[in-house]
Each structure stands twice: as structure tokens, then as C-alpha cells.
Amino acid sequence: MKLSDYRVRGKRARLADWDTREDGGLSKEEAQPLLAELQEELASWQERLYAEGKQSLLVVLQARDAGGKDGTVKKVIGAFNPNGVRVSNFKVPTPEEKAHDFLWRVHAQVPRAGMIGVFNRSHYEDVLVPLVHGEMDEEAAEERLKDIRHFEALLGRGGTRVVKFYLHVSPDEQKERLQARLDDPSKHWKFNPGDLAERALWDGYTDAYEACLATSTDAAPWYVVPADRKWFRDLLVSRVLLHTLKDMDPQYPAVNFDPRAIAIE
Q1: CB 210 within 8 A of CB 15
Q2: Is 32 a domain residue?
Q3: Could you list the residue range(s) of the whole structural domain that residue 191 is in?
Q4: Has this prediction a pTM greater than 0.85?
């Protein structure tokens, strides 16, 4: 599994270039022990990040309805110590949020030094939804995407590494997952009839997501994650996060005492 195969490069990505059912040449049984090893490593590197207290990591999760954002938070982000993680969800803007620029509510949720922040939906929603619903034209959307590029560059200069994931599911897989929510009474709360209206706009969202993926940069890369197979999704996201944390290379802080000279009575 080469991480570079999933990283978006260039000004225009085509989602059709990634197979939503890809398995990386692995079986689910082979992937499970690999994921367990990755989770141990992720926890170790998170501890270093927290102890250092100089850098932070922002993880952006975007997907269509039932695309697996919540599952990724549970299965991947769950490997981290919750004391060092903050998950933020961005829903329809409130009247107060609408009274400010679209990034106002987002900037307030950026992780402080030492922390990992997770955006379960993000500032990209403020481009995707209005663009697909005809509330914004392509020129206005491009202006917002330009603002987002500058915003993410600002975060990078301030010590916050940004890594973005688009969880890529097929129409058939989404249908199956939505149906499963209807069939299981314990999952009814997760079903929103409005999701069916959004599903009908599949092609529009494909175009909008491809426009958003053009914001992939060295400082804030996008990864397209084949997500029909949940276990492969978790494995790939974990590997990217581990690669990112190692590249950040947080260090345990030096202490101002000699541990060898201290005797605890």
C-alpha cells in the first residue's frame, strides 16, 4: 500500500480514478493485526505530540451521507488518549455564525498546541452545500476555496499540520448503509429522510468534491480513501496519520533535573 497512490496532486482530481472497493491486496483477517499495531504506534506518537506541546494536528474528515465519518472517529481516532483529542462537528450555521465570515466558527475549533483536532465535516461544507444547491456560483465557490487555501497555510505557519480525508463510497454502498439504518430499530436515529434528497444530487456532489480536492497542497494534503470496505478505510487512514505524525517528529521535552540524582524515599 503506497500512501502516495491516494494523495491528491494537481489542480483537478477525478474521483472515478479511485476504486471505492479497493482492498490494498489484503483480506480483512490480514488487516486486523496490522491495524492493532498501528493503533499502538499512533498512541505513542500522540503522547509525544502532547508532551512536546509545540505542534498540533488537524484531521479533516469529509464524506457523503453514510460515508463512514463517525466510524472512522470511533475506530481510528479512538486509538488516541481522549485527553489529547477534540472532535468538532459542523452543521448548518446558526444565525450567530452566519453573521460572521464563513471561517469564523471554524478557526475557533482549531486544535491548540499539543492536541489533535478532528473536524467531522468541516469548512468545506460551506462550499459543497451551497454550490450543489445553486446558492453559490462557481466563481464564488472558487473564491471560498482560495480563502480556505490561505487559511490552511496560515495554520501550517502557526504549527498546525493539516491532513484531509475524503472517504470515497459508491452509490450502491451508500444505499446499503442507509437501508441498514432503516432495517435496524436501534439505528433509526441515524437515518435522516433528507439524506435521500442529497443522494439524488450525487453527480453534483461529485463535481463539488472534485473542486474541493484541488486545495490539496504539501502543507494540507487531501487523501482519497476507498471506503466501501470499512476495515480498509480504517487501515489507510491510520497509516496516513502515523506517517504524518512521524513527519512532524514531536520530541519529549528536556527536563531541568537529573533523574538519576533523585531518590524517592
Answers
A1: yes
A2: yes
A3: 3-249
A4: yes
